[in-house]
Every structure is written in C-alpha cells, then in structure tokens.
Design goal:
alpha/beta; globular; Rossmann fold; 46% helix; 16 helices; seven-stranded parallel β-sheet
C-alpha cells in the first residue's frame, strides 16, 4: 500500500505524545512492507534538529519538512476573533506547503492520504483536488473539548470568556472537516462518540495510539517515593496539570514524607521556575524518555483538561511503573482502577494514595503485572497499525 501522511508537526525527537504517536505508525507501516511518504510542518519555535529528524524519518518514509512560524501574533488573533474564525487552526496554513502537497499528489498515486489531526484540516481541499483515493483523518484528540475544560477551570472571567470562544470556534471547525474526509479514526471510543454527534453519518473506527514494546522493557521495582511527570510544556494541558500538582498536592506529599521527590521533565520545561521548589528535581534535557522513566518509580498524570489518550501512561505501564492519574488523564485507556493503575482526582485523594503506598496497603506488584499484560494485548503499535490499514482496505 502507498501511504501519504500529512502532519502539522515533525514526529522527531520523541519527546511528547503527539510526535510519538505519529512516528510509531510511520515506522510500523514501513516495517510491515508499505511505502510511506511523510510531509510535515515544523513550527520554528520547537527548535527541531532538522538534519537529525530527516535522517531518522528517512529510515521509514520519504520525508519533506517545511519550517513555518506558528507563534501567536496578537494582531492576527484579534482579527480572527472579530471574524469568528479559529486562529488555533489558521496558524498552520502555509501556501507553499499546500503547493508541495498538490504537486506530490499530481505526480504520484497513493492508496490513502492520512491527515494527522485537526490542524491538518487546511490542506484537505488540496488533497481532494489532486487525489482520487481514500482520504482519512486520524484525530488524536477532541481539540474543542480540551479548550472547553480549560475554560471550566479558568477563574479569570475575561480569560474564561475568550477560551470559551476559542472552544466554540474549534468545535465548528472540527464539525466542518469531519464532513470533508472519507473516514475518521480516533484513539478512544469516547472521542469517537463526541465526533459522531457532530457528524452522525461519518465512517468511524477507534484505533488506539500504540507504543514500541522493544523500547519499553518491563523493569518493575518496589520503590514508590520517586514520582515523575514527563510531557511537553508547550501544551497548555500539561502546564496546568503541573502547576496544579505543585500548588495543591506537592506540599502535602512533602509534609507526609521528607524522602518523597517529584522529578519533572519535558520539552520546553521552565527549569528556573521549578528547580527552586523543595523536593523537586528538574531535567531540562532528557536524551531518552525510556531511560528517564527507568530511573523513577511512580508516573503521575494530574491532568484537568485533555482528550485522546496519554501515551506517557501506556509507556509507564509497559515499563513496570505504577501510574497515579486523574480520571481525565487516564481516559481512553481500557483500565480498571486498582487493577491496572490508581486514580486520584483531588489533592486529598493523591495524599491518601501516597500514604497507602508507603504503608504497603496497595499490591503494587499485582498492578504492575496486570498493566504490562494490558499493554501487550491492546497497545502494541505493530498490531494497531495493521488494524488501521485493514480498516482502510475495507472502504
């Protein structure tokens, strides 16, 4: 099968869930014997090592990368606000990129064009004009829902009103693009139901995000004092989660145990801001996420907004690390609380979990074994990529 993937981000380095999810499918398609072409934008603020990225991605796909400026320009933001158009989306439109896609499609035949998420929507029209095969939209999350949740927890009334407007604009945009493609795949059933309510006649399939089990080896340990959070701090959901944890939960765990530590890592993390907080260890640069995870004990995912599925949870479960997450953080994963991971939604609940762990009142070894089995059964990238292509072939 000849596959064209179009992405609004470069899936390298593997330092955040979105890039990992795209990269894993690119690699799995190629290793299954399919011909893959990858066209992606690169926001210059990400400081992507382009030579390294090109070299890595070319192992699996013919790769084209176009750097663009996606930084927020307030004059443009205001103009879009007045026009009631989504500035979140339009920042990812580039005329040269659209032209390159059109030229590629005119000169080559693909069985399927797979668009990676909401922000590739501006290029659907160009794909339709120049491609007669299947057009698939892989939705990594429900963008409008993320902003709705952010609005619900925002205390500043002006910001709340603005974020609500952004959420409404994204909802209208996502409704429109769903109707412009042939099929839609989502990473959770919950996301699929939300999109079906926007486009009842659409063809949907749920294919979770997967992980490479060769990289994430099962190395459990019995310690539970070194908690960690890893995730891109360029994503507002992670920024809010870490801020909430440090303000409301971390002080209580400090008081409970002087040996407790919180290890923080992620793209664009503000080391200066966090390193002065007692019992916090900050890692401005992590060469290998798997090595970082291996050095810690408990993965904490205190998300209060979000959608899709959290790869950091799947990776932790595969690696033999206990996961303590909010309900929102763990959504989309086929888990049972207390059997595969632990759920805490309030500071009081997080503190109770910590105290139970230190008293040995939770069977951690059992949870870790069950979690690894769940990953092996349901979240191997190779099996999920094959499911994805089988779904495409059936259309």
């Amino acid at each position: 099968m000849n596959i064209l993937q179009i992405s609004n981000r470069v899936p390298w380095p593997l330092n955040e869930g979105g890039t990992i999810g795209i990269y894993n499918f690119t690699r799995a398609y190629a290793e299954a014997g399919h011909n893959v072409t990858l066209y992606c934008l690169d926001g210059i603020k990400h400081n992507t090592p382009l030579v390294e990225a090109q070299r890595e991605l070319e192992k699996y796909a013919k790769t084209y990368i176009l750097p663009i400026d996606t930084d927020v320009k307030w004059d443009e933001a205001i103009k879009h606000l007045l026009q009631n158009k989504s500035y979140n989306v339009s920042r990812f439109y580039n005329a040269l990129f659209e032209q390159e896609i059109s030229t590629l499609l005119k000169n080559n035949t693909f069985d399927v064009v797979q668009l990676e998420g909401t922000f590739t929507g501006p290029y659907i029209a160009a794909v339709r004009r120049n491609h007669t095969g299947l057009v698939a939209l892989r939705m990594h999350n429900v963008e409008y829902e993320i902003w709705e949740r952010l609005a619900s927890i925002e205390k500043n009334i002006v910001k709340k009103t603005y974020i609500k407007l952004l959420a409404n604009q994204l909802k209208a945009y996502e409704t429109a693009i769903l109707q412009k493609v042939d099929v839609i795949t989502t990473v959770t059933d919950d996301d699929a139901q939300k999109f079906k309510s926007l486009h009842p006649t659409g063809i949907f399939e749920t294919i979770p995000a997967g992980i490479n089990l060769r990289e994430w080896q099962y190395l459990p340990n019995k310690e539970t004092k070194n908690w960690y959070h890893i995730g891109s701090m360029e994503w507002h959901g992670n920024v809010d989660a870490v801020s909430w944890f440090l303000e409301e939960i971390h002080p209580q765990l400090q008081d409970a145990d002087m040996h407790y530590r919180l290890h923080l890592a992620g793209k664009s993390i503000d080391a200066v801001r966090y390193k002065s907080i007692p019992q916090v260890v900050v890692y401005p640069q992590v060469q290998s996420a798997s090595h970082f995870v291996k050095s810690c004990d408990v993965c904490v995912v205190p998300l209060r907004s979000g959608s899709g599925i959290r790869l950091k949870i799947l990776e932790a479960m595969a690696a033999g690390k206990l996961v303590v997450s909010t309900t929102i953080g763990a959504q989309g994963i086929d888990y049972r609380a207390g059997e595969h991971l632990l759920i805490a939604d309030t500071p009081t609940e997080f503190l109770a979990v910590y105290k139970q762990l230190q008293k040995g009142e939770i069977d951690v070894a059992m949870i870790l074994k069950n979690a690894r089995k769940l990953i092996e059964k349901n979240y191997s990238t190779e099996a999920l990529a094959e499911r994805q292509l089988t779904f495409y072939s059936a259309q």
